[in-house]
Design brief:
Largest sheet: 5 strands, antiparallel
Strand order of the largest sheet: 3-4-5-15-6
Distance between the termini: 40 Å
Radius of gyration: 21 Å
Mean pLDDT: 87
Helix content: 10-25%
Oligomer: single chain
Strand content: 25-35%
Structural class: alpha+beta
Number of strands: 15
């Protein structure tokens, strides 16, 4: 059925293109145009499955940005799996997340996590690391990506679709951990960057997602947030 539809579309485009050389085909995601091309320049249409790549046994996606983004969180087995939670600069998950249990001996004036304290690098190996705040801002930039709140395989979260090539990743609303509690699971999540907030060294930058918003900011380093790694 899809093949017949595509063949019909191409035939229609050929007729239209001969009469209206300025007619364009626009690909939409909601109200946003992902891609636009004059009909006269189209000779075929194909539906290709998104290609995921692999580094050290972990998949990543090319979104056309400065870094490649992993398809899963650290500790997760699938994109919808919440994975583990980590305090900033710690490389192991734990039962209690608080200022009293925070255990990172990193120099307080370090602006970016060294790889020794970067849980993505420690858990996944060479080539993987946590994103910087600049790389997270690039992902949040609506000129680069479309963020759509959705449910994937029963899990709430954001589908992040590249405006550059149409590839996407899914960020589950994994909540966060404080003391011994998992808070706002299914409604929101925090994703750590590797960058500290130099205006307040007890805080580090992160992406905060919820059903109604995607924001950047900083949070207490002792809280347990998710990690979505990147690679070059």
């Amino acid at each position: 059925m899809k093949t017949k539809l595509i063949t019909l579309l191409i035939a229609i485009f050929a007729v239209i293109g001969s009469a209206y050389t300025q007619t364009k085909v626009n690909i939409y995601k909601g109200s946003d145009v992902l891609y636009s091309l004059p009909v006269a320049e189209i000779d075929s249409i194909k539906f290709d499955k998104q290609k995921n790549y692999n580094k050290n046994g972990h998949e990543y996606v090319d979104l056309g940005l400065s870094v490649k983004w992993a398809t899963c969180n650290v500790g997760a087995d699938s994109p919808e799996d919440y994975g583990d939670y980590f305090a900033w600069g710690e490389t192991s998950s734990k039962d209690i997340y608080s200022s009293k249990t925070y255990n990172c001996s990193l120099d307080v004036y370090t602006t970016t996590l060294p790889l020794l304290y970067d849980v993505a690098n420690v858990k996944w190996g060479d080539g993987w690391r946590m994103p910087t705040v600049v790389e997270q801002e690039e992902l949040r930039d609506t000129n680069n990506c479309i963020w759509t709140w959705t449910t994937q395989n029963g899990i709430n979260g954001f589908r992040v679709t590249s405006k550059k090539n149409g590839n996407s990743i899914f960020l589950p609303a994994a909540g966060y951990r404080y003391e011994g509690n998992l808070i706002y699971e299914g409604n929101s999540a925090g994703y750590w960057s590797s960058s500290i907030n130099t205006q307040g060294y007890s805080y580090a930058f992160y992406i905060a997602i919820s059903s109604g918003s995607v924001t950047g900011g900083s949070n207490n380093k002792y809280l347990g947030h998710s990690i979505r790694p990147v690679c070059e």
